[in-house]
Amino acid sequence: KKLYGAELRVVKSVDGRVPIDRFAKAIDENTRVVAISQIQFGTGFRADLGTLEKLAHDNGAYLSVDIIQAAGCFETDLVNLKIDFATGQAAKWMLGPIGAGYVYVRKSIMDKIQPRFLGWWGVEKLTEFGYFDREPLADARMFQVGSPAMVAYVGLLESLKVLLQIPSKNRERAALATADYLRKRLTELDIPYYDFGPNNNSATVSCEPPDVEKLNEKLAKNKIHCSVRNGRLRVSPHFYNSTEEIDRLMEYFG
């Protein structure tokens, strides 16, 4: 607010979910950008992007989505959903290295926006250093600032070769099936977890076993990698994980 004179309105979650009606109350004709994570990192709640798109655009605002917790696992049609901006990085579900990222900008709004900063990879004739009128590129590359982390992008390319061998719907279906099996096992053991229903669940399961920090340390020592977020254990099975691996995980919950 101090830098740009903008009012920041924070829509708070309720029991792990981000209710659409709270967004509706926060958005009005003065709203410029509606920003949300497609999947909440701490709870696994999956947002209803279709409804948010309508809320944002009906009020003349852009919709910006952080897809880092979804890309590589969930099929997200940015074009048909009319997402204006999407950002993420190569790590997590994309199976790539930290240091490589990406930005998507909807083609139909390119003539309405300008980058706040220019980098030499974001302008026309990038190798001509003797002129001072630097014209931004006409597509989303205009937002490139500085030089890319080349080695990280080589790693991202290799991970994409693996991911693209498997249709995105198949990856999504497999990861969700394993996550649902985990929810079933948690129910059997009477361990609390967030359950948002089929439309809002993701492959990220946030549960609340006893002594979560000690449990996570024990899991790590046995080469089972989860994470603790907001005092809860976050388990994120990908398409290649199996129900047998979930059963092995649950052996440590007793």
From TrEMBL:
SUPFAM superfamilies recorded: PLP-dependent transferases
Gene3D superfamilies noted in UniProt: Aspartate Aminotransferase, domain 1, Type I PLP-dependent aspartate aminotransferase-like (Major domain)
Domain Aminotransferase class V: 2-249
Name of the protein described by the UniProt record: Aminotransferase class V domain-containing protein
